[in-house]
Design goal:
Blueprint lengths: L14 H13 L2 H8 L6 E4 L9 H8 L1 E4 L3 H12 L1 H18 L7 H12 E5 L2 H8 L3 H7 L8 E4 L2 H6 L8 E5 L12 H7 L2 H4 L4 E5 L30
Parallel strand pairs: 1-2, 3-5
Antiparallel strand pairs: 3-4, 5-6
Helix pairs in contact: 1-2, 2-4, 3-5, 4-5, 5-6, 5-10
Organism: Variovorax robiniae
InterPro entries: DUF3025 (IPR021390)
Protein name: DUF3025 domain-containing protein
């Protein structure tokens, strides 16, 4: 794996135990490093070759309580999420496995499995004041990041998707998180494992209740966005095209 800069704001929630496990994974294997840090009762991390060729990854985890793990950064970040958000990851796996049992593995996943995969790989949760949510849903980037900038001091954004964490090891302006809105009138989700798990409602997820957020636009997360011209880039900060 390439070196990971754990000082990045988006990796702060994962720095413990990620920073200490990174060199262990380099000396041994990703599965061994993660398993050494796994608490009692959590899924076991095993080498990826234990996954049978004819069994779906999610179904295997659900059946065996073990997580097939490759020696790469993608699976390392996936393991960190399992360690710190076991309830949310178990909920995602339960829903995936149930859909596979119901519909099997076909050419397409269907709306629920698509949403589960999107959140697992590229999702994030935001706990923020209503004014920020209104601006985000409207794709009103100037309001979200400039006129309401001070409100970000009251907000907490958690990058959950392990594929997005992997991409952000080499941050680029266009890297975008899919923010999950909670079911019900309040879209905020506290940055808490149990709260995230509770928000993972099958019927709600099937509606794909996500809003895109360019991560490097978050105040304090990227030095270049102190210059407000940073947001004048329509290829990244795109206007809303249709109602949510």
């Amino acid at each position: 794996m390439p070196p990971i800069d754990w000082s990045r704001e988006w990796l702060a929630p994962w720095r413990v135990p990620g920073e200490s496990l990174e060199p262990v994974a380099a000396r041994t294997s990703t599965a061994q490093a993660l398993q050494a840090a796994a608490p009692a009762g959590s899924p076991h991390f095993v080498p990826h070759d234990q996954l049978p060729a004819d069994e779906a990854y999610e179904a295997f985890i659900h059946r065996t309580g073990t997580v097939p793990t490759r020696d790469n950064m993608h699976d390392f970040f996936n393991g960190l999420v399992w360690l710190k958000c076991p309830q949310a990851k178990c909920r995602l796996n339960q829903l995936q496995a149930a859909e596979i049992a119901r519909a099997g593995i076909g050419a397409t996943r269907g709306p629920l499995r698509d949403a589960l995969t999107l959140f697992d790989e590229n999702g994030a949760v935001l706990d923020a004041p209503p004014a920020l949510w209104a601006a985000l849903v409207a794709r009103d980037w100037q309001r979200l990041f400039v006129s309401e900038r001070a409100l970000w001091q009251q907000a907490r954004l958690l990058i959950f998707g392990h594929a997005l964490m992997e991409k952000l090891v080499f941050p680029r302006k266009q890297h975008t998180a899919h923010i999950l809105r909670a079911p019900g009138p309040d879209p905020s989700i506290p940055n808490d494992d149990a709260a995230i798990a509770t928000a993972l409602d099958a019927a709600h997820l099937a509606t794909k209740p996500f809003v895109p957020l360019p991560v490097l636009g978050v105040p304090g997360w990227w030095a270049d966005n102190r210059n407000f011209c940073f947001y004048d880039d329509p290829d990244v900060f795109r206007p809303r095209r249709s109602p949510e």
